[in-house]
Write a structure and sequence with these properties.
By secondary structure, this protein is an alpha+beta fold. It folds into 3 domains: 4-195, Hypothetical protein af1432, CATH 1.10.3210; 201-275, Phosphorylase Kinase, domain 1; 280-485, Aminoglycoside phosphotransferase (APH), C-terminal lobe (Aminoglycoside 3'-phosphotransferase, Chain: A, domain 2, Alpha-Beta Complex), CATH 3.90.1200. It contains 20 helices and 11 strands. The strands form 3 sheets. The chain has a 6-stranded mixed sheet, covered by helices on one side. A 3-stranded antiparallel sheet has the order 7-9-10. Strand 9 (366-369) and strand 10 (372-375) form a beta hairpin.
């Protein structure tokens, strides 16, 4: 009686019969066989190895996931589906290349099944072996024979895959070989050390107190002297490395921040260790002493002035305009193109400055150590007008809670009314005025950006639910009224 793998080999050989590989015109079946062999160096899980044999059945033959599930089980079918791109038969494959790859990468990034990561690594390594061999013979001419002829886009694709599977599979020979091939075709893409044995220090946050949480991850008190920021699984080693580098750069520019001294692994996530001796977030202080919210708002205002007073070279940091533009294009543009263009023009009219803005400025990212504030999370730091920073604060402390106050309460750790009070105190301190007309004017300008951002938030989850559609419609009404009233977003 045949086992699962033997049956898969026969099934795949029949389904791929007559098909050949690109470049060398060798029988196609040799590719899935190679993928399964690579998988066998990483695991003895027969379902994962079988999926390697079958991974191109749905994309390249008449076979279906239903048939694979019936023959080989749900897990094998799931693994195969993770490697099967969405097809757009009415459109040219060259035109849909980036869309197909981006959609597929989301599946890889969001999967928690190690088999998915192994399957992707094995498949791409097999492809890279072939590509590197042909590249050595033909050089740059090789790109003309692919659906994506831009070598930089090909580099983006393979680099993203390597970054995504690195934490889970960096100790495997397959990962190290993939890095070598990528660096051969695109020199310097990865540090050559990544192709050598490397073991990250492994730490656990089990039993550790959660200090703060945000879109990118969570911060835990590790011991009396250290905290660890645990990045979510969508963050790659490169993301963590970039943020640490930005922390060092901004520290030298005069921003009081905690410097990470090493990347660690926390389960299946990356982490960054920071020295923050007996420090707590301002959110914790406000939670314990809400009557002192004005005092902490002044601390945040002073810190904001420190950050915003620093000027930098134009090539060192991105313009904050790029982030604001992404909010429009990622949400409002899908809902009302004319209104989106009107908002883009207002954003484009914001004067370009070389002053720093933090980009994720809230009390969960500011620690008090010996009475002095230290700000963390530098991945969004950029240069531009402070209206961007004020809109961030208004978004975190007010707008996010309009439909459901618990969103702000869960994020900040203190009541929504306290959060709204914090924003009002911060704005008065930052602008140095109690003039209600001035405060309302700046808040209205900030709110336009906030409602644009809120639409992007609802759209990021995929097709909006009926409830989210109502919220989006409310945001559009607000934006339309504000664009009719406001001439500028600056103050």
């Amino acid at each position: 009686m045949m086992n699962m793998l033997e049956e898969a080999i026969i099934y795949a050989a029949v389904m791929h019969q007559g098909k050949v590989r690109k470049f060398k015109s060798i029988p196609y079946i040799l590719h899935p066989l190679e993928v399964s062999q690579i998988l066998s160096t990483m695991t003895d899980d027969m379902e994962i190895i079988t999926a390697g044999i079958l991974h191109d059945i749905v994309e390249d033959t008449d076979g279906t996931l239903e048939e694979i599930e019936k023959r080989f089980g749900k897990r094998v079918a799931y693994l195969v589906s993770s490697e099967s791109e969405q097809e757009y038969p009415e459109e040219d494959r060259r035109e849909t290349w980036q869309r197909r790859k981006s959609e597929a990468l989301l599946i890889l990034k969001n999967s928690r099944d190690i088999g998915v990561k192994m399957l992707w690594l094995a498949d791409k390594l097999a492809n890279m072996r072939s590509l590197a061999r042909i590249y050595s013979e033909r050089g740059e001419a090789v790109w003309n024979e692919l659906h994506q002829s831009d070598p930089e886009m090909q580099c983006w694709y393979y680099r993203t895959i390597a970054e995504t599977v690195e934490l889970s599979l960096n100790k495997t020979g397959a990962f190290k070989e993939l890095i070598k091939h990528i660096n051969y075709i695109w020199p310097g893409t990865f540090d050559s050390d990544k192709a050598k044995y490397r073991k990250y220090r492994e730490v656990s946050v089990e039993g550790c107190r959660l200090l703060a949480k945000g879109a990118k991850g969570e911060v835990y008190r590790y011991d009396d002297e250290l905290v660890v920021k645990v990045y979510n699984q969508n963050n790659t080693y490169r993301d963590v490395e970039k943020e640490i580098a930005l922390c060092k750069k901004t520290f030298l520019l005069g921003i009081p921040t905690a410097i990470s001294f090493g990347i660690v692994s926390v389960g299946n996530c990356y982490g960054a260790m920071l020295e923050l001796i007996e420090a707590e977030t301002l959110s914790e202080y406000i939670k314990r002493s809400p009557a002192q919210v004005g005092t902490y708002a002044k601390m945040m205002s002073d810190l904001a002035h420190t950050i915003h007073s620093i000027t930098v070279n134009t090539d060192e940091f991105p313009e904050v305009y790029e982030r604001l533009e992404s909010y429009v294009r990622g949400g409002l543009s899908y809902e009302d193109e004319a209104l989106a263009e009107k908002c883009l023009k207002m954003i484009e009219a914001i004067p370009t400055t070389n002053h720093l803005v933090h980009g994720d400025f809230h009390t969960g990212n500011v620690f008090l150590q010996n009475g002095e504030p230290l700000v963390i999370d530098m991945d969004r730091i950029s240069r531009g007008h402070p209206i961007a920073e004020i809109s961030d604060i208004y978004y975190f402390y007010d707008i996010l809670g309009e439909d459901d106050p618990s969103v702000v309460e869960n994020f900040m750790g203190f009541p929504y009314n306290t959060a709204r009070q914090f924003y009002q105190c911060f704005l008065r301190e930052y602008l140095g005025t109690g003039d209600e007309q001035v405060l309302n004017d700046v808040t209205e300008k900030a709110s336009l950006i906030c409602y644009i951002r809120l639409i992007r938030k609802y759209r990021k989850k995929g097709t909006p639910s009926e409830e989210d559609r109502k919220k989006i419609s409310r945001c559009i009404e607000k934006i339309r009224a504000l664009t009719e009233k406001l001439d500028t977003l600056t103050f």
